[in-house]
Amino acid sequence: MAIDQLPIRLVVNEREYELLRRLLSRTSARTQRGPKVDKQEDESKTVAFHDDHRAAAFRSASRVFMVTFGSLKLLSAILGRLAARKSPTGTGSRKPLVASQSRMALSLSSLLFFHATLYRIFARLRLQLLHEKVRDIRERYPRIYATLTSRIAPALGASLSGFALGICPADQLRITLAIYVGCRALELGYAAMEHTALIKNKPSWLGSWVLFALAQGQLFHAFVFDRDCVPEAYGSFVLGYTPEYIQRRPTSISPKVVWPTSGNILDALAQMAQSRWPNFVSPILHPNEAQTLPVGIDTVISPITSRAHPGIQHLSCALLHPSDPSCFMAYIRHMLISFPQLAKFFTKYYGALALLRLRQIIKAPLASLNGLSEAVLRSSVAVSGWIGAAWGSICLFQAILPRSLLPKFRFFLGGFLGGMFQIFDRTTAGHANSLYAARTSVDSLWKVGVKRRWWRGIRGGDVCVFVAALALVNVVYDLGKETAAGQDRAMMLIKVLRGEAELGLQRRKEKAIETGEHQEGGRDEVI
Questions:
Q1: Would you put residue 169 in left (φ > 0), alpha (ψ -120 to 50) or beta?
Q2: Which of 88, 135, 392, 451 has the fewest Cβ atoms within 10 angstroms?
Q3: Residue 38 covered by a domain
Q4: The whole model's pTM is what?
Q5: Counts of helices then strands in the chain (DSSP H, E)
Q6: Which domain holds residue 6?
Q7: Record's superkingdom (predicted)?
Q8: Is residue 406 assigned to a domain?
Q9: Is residue 17 part of a domain?
Q10: Which tens digits make up the pLDDT trace of 440-458?
Q11: Three-state SS for 505?
Q12: For residue 100, with 0-12 CB atoms within 10 Å meaning exposed, 13-18 middle and 19 or more buried, which class applies?
């Protein structure tokens, strides 16, 4: 009996249909309490299932749609419940995780379906053009023929499916996804070229920590001058682990006094840079002066600077560490306070990630504990050194540079100097942190450039970046299978996109089907 009905092939594949048929036949046999069916007789009634790649692509795409839509719905409900518990009196105006859950799911499912379809179309077209009967096209259209018969033509053609990302709402999530895929594609491209002389002979000290330093330089500069172009999570993390340089409101101060916020302090630092770093005039030493702050500096910071130590020379030092005239001691105190806090944070973070490798921990507990301790220690040293050096560099440049030399660019140099502490965390976790900082910096730099009119925003530019990144990954998959990039887990995604691996129960091997060596209790593979 052959199964040719299209609805069945769009829902289940051959292996899943066979499994369902067995379950239903056993259930009906138990219900009717009839005689036991012989195993060989049951296997002889195997159903011929005529499947094709279009039905397989539709099945995978529909499953992606359902899983994505259901996951977003569930996650939105969980976040809503947590927000309601946190603030029961809230009005429910929390910003949704995704602007349109259905469009997001449709975008990803369309990407999978069109990628598999386009790849087969261009691969078949390439084979047809290479046939002897159509070689006359080569003489009439040599450039088009060379393009369509190239080894990477199917890969590039299939990458056009990346424009399906345009179905997704044009919000920050789509931009983040495009930047992530773009950076991941560049990483795979770099891994595919590691065997070349250009990459193989690079200095041993050169690594991803340089990206971290450059990214922190850009982010710290934007954090002071263009705070709206920096992710809120970055600002919250930096300010949360800056116990010394950002002055909190004292408990003993009168509630009538308006204490400056962290945003006011950062704005004041930007104003000081624009005023070429003025000196500090202490109100304690000049009580008769009504206003000791220079023109152009917001007086909202006066509750901090008016209490500053009279021995401080620079206004920035009076704002950052008013109770201590020594910049070096303020830096040391910051490091002593922030390091234990960051060690506690990374212990929780890496400890939660270690639960994903529970089997490895049970198998080798001491080695896993040593690795976890090393990761926590290295990350704590790198991040505490980065934050402390970024703030401390403001005082350092005040001491070694003239006031008018690079007044604004100092924040980039300070962030870069602090980011160099990442050299102490040249591990897998440190590499991931460096790439995350690089992706965040790319997003921030683009927004700063659009804001300051260095370049114009491109409508749908994130989609174009996604398409180019998808093309690069496809090319690496075809040409770099023998390199380190070919062993990357991201290549499994390309297999799914091309239809080489289906999302569901995998088909039985041909050898096992021919010899009949299937066992009823066998395990089915699921992707």
A1: beta
A2: 88
A3: yes
A4: 0.82
A5: 23, 2
A6: 2-51
A7: Eukaryota
A8: no
A9: yes
A10: 999 999 999 999 989 888 8
A11: strand
A12: middle
